[in-house]
Design a protein that fits this description.
Layout: H1 2-12, H2 19-43, H3 50-73, H4 79-96
Length: about 100
């Protein structure tokens, strides 16, 4: 129980997120739901190559995560994130070509 108490005290000292952060979270959640619906309809379509489609979705999530971090927290990309984005773009070009 000692760990729970420490976590509770730590959580009480946190600030409430801004209205902009919450609005951005709702905005992103809406598009996430739309994306899940779009993905579900495309995966069952026999004309769509499923592996390439799911890989593209994963790469999109890889690209959007640091972007949302920048928008919500104002943190710039680290060298590791730049390398990850570059490799994600390279993967897209390999899939398309």
């Amino acid at each position: 129980m000692g760990g729970v108490g420490a976590a509770y005290l730590d959580a009480r000292e946190q600030q409430v997120p801004s209205v902009t952060a919450i609005a951005l979270l709702f905005f992103v959640s809406f598009f996430n739901g739309a994306g899940v619906h779009f993905q579900a309809t495309k995966v069952v379509d026999p004309l769509v190559p499923t592996v390439s489609f799911i890989t593209a979705i994963i790469i999109l999530m890889l690209v959007m995560t640091p972007t949302y971090n920048f928008l919500l927290n104002g943190e710039g990309l680290t060298v590791r994130q730049w390398v990850g984005l570059g490799l994600a773009l390279l993967t897209v070009f390999v899939l398309v070509g």
